[in-house]
Design brief:
With 491 residues, the protein is mainly alpha-helical. It has helices at 5-23, 28-44, 47-51, 85-101, 110-129, 133-142, 144-154, 159-187, 194-197, 204-221, 230-237, 240-265, 267-272, 274-293, 298-317, 322-353, 369-382, 389-404, 406-431, 438-441, 448-466, 469-488, and strands at residues 61-69, 74-80. It has a two-stranded antiparallel ribbon with strand order 1-2. The longest helix is centred in the last third of the chain and has 32 residues, at 322-353. The chain is globular, with a radius of gyration of 22 Å. It starts with a helix and ends with a helix.
Amino acid sequence: MNYPILSLAIWVPIIGALPLLALGSERRDLVRWLALAVAIAGFLVTLPLYLEFDRGTAAMQFIEQAPWIERFNIHYFLGVDGISVLFILLNSFITVLVVIAGWQIINEKVAQYMAAFLIMSGLMNGIFSSLDAVLFYVFFEASLIPMYIIIGVWGGPSRVYAAFKFFLYTLLGSLLMLVALIYLFIQADGSFNLLYWHQLRLEMTPQILIFVAFFAAFAVKVPMWPVHTWLPDAHVEAPTGGSVVLAAIMLKLGAYGFVRFSLPILPDASHFLAPMMIALSLIAVVYIGFVALVQADMKKLIAYSSISHMGFVTLGFFIFNQIGIEGALVQMISHGFISAAMFLCVGVMYDRMHSRQIADYGGVVNRMPKFAAFFMLFAMANSGLPATSGFVGEFMVILGAIKFNFWVGFCAAITLILGAAYTLWMYKRVVFGAVANDHVAELTDICWREFLVLALLAVAVLAMGVYPFPFTDIMHASVDNLLQHVAMSKL
């Protein structure tokens, strides 16, 4: 590559957001079109990452490196492998959909709303491509700010409480991670290079302490049980676009941290603490599934569903086999599509009735047949229906878990029943039956803009479900290399 493709992925949306802020919200239509143009440009510049990626090597590709803070040996160091490349494409794709989804819904501070999502998109691309620990930390922390603003300004009645809870939970965990990064910097003879850190050989005690520090930062972001309580509040109060990005991308940052930091840098501690991680993951998968069953608020139900599905991801990482880790990564991508679609579907109904309560609906299919068809597809995908993306990742993780231990795999498989129970029961009560009340009777079906967004996600869900090879092929070499590295270090 002759041009800095990763820098473009980071800075095109961030720099493109600045003219929006300069225009202000008076010229709303111009702001919307400009935001869409920037989001599409941000997505297009990431496509060569996939098209020109060399699938035969586990080495970092598209590397960029330049001095940043030379006194502390901190570099602007970027690169991607088969584990990280798909998340940059997913993030940039979801950003385009969020801009379109907020087209007519957001009428207050439109420029600031669109700019916040574009800036956050660039920052999260920085997280997925950083190979310098300080650069990673800066992007990791900076990404909190736009989401904090999105929830706090455009959220629901309790938005300030939810925004503070989100910010404090995620910030406090990250402070422990900073201590761990400084310790590793000292152990690495003054280097923040992640690739060099992967070659460190630390004693078991410091490995465990650093693992706990990383756990504090990454488990909150996933979120794992029992540090998950901020997520339902954040989802319920966030605007639809905020919920989409929170579920589709931000939850992936914690899981990505485990696979980029904890496993390769702390392999012995990862093996030693794997039973704890598996137990916490299974609690999230099973217990949170039961919690989702009793929810009366659609957004809260989908938020708990996200916690349960992300339990599959952490389970897959810590069973230490190829199909389990690849399944976890596929589940992360799939959950990005499905959770985004589910929150957008709830947003479509909320925009019309201004209620998220399941009891306020019934018979929606009689007034919104096109919407009901899309919602059915995404509900089935959320339940793990074969030929949808929701099945592929969960099936791979369950296979890997059974290979690891039959009862672990059995407990993980229970969630397929629970997922179908809470998702389809919600769908039945909201969509089927006679028209429940006058408010439902006044509903109108989706417009072309809503149809476009849901159709793009439907294509992604079905394509990944029917033919997942393009997703698994690109990560195979990197996952294999990671497993060899972790296995070699096992005590």
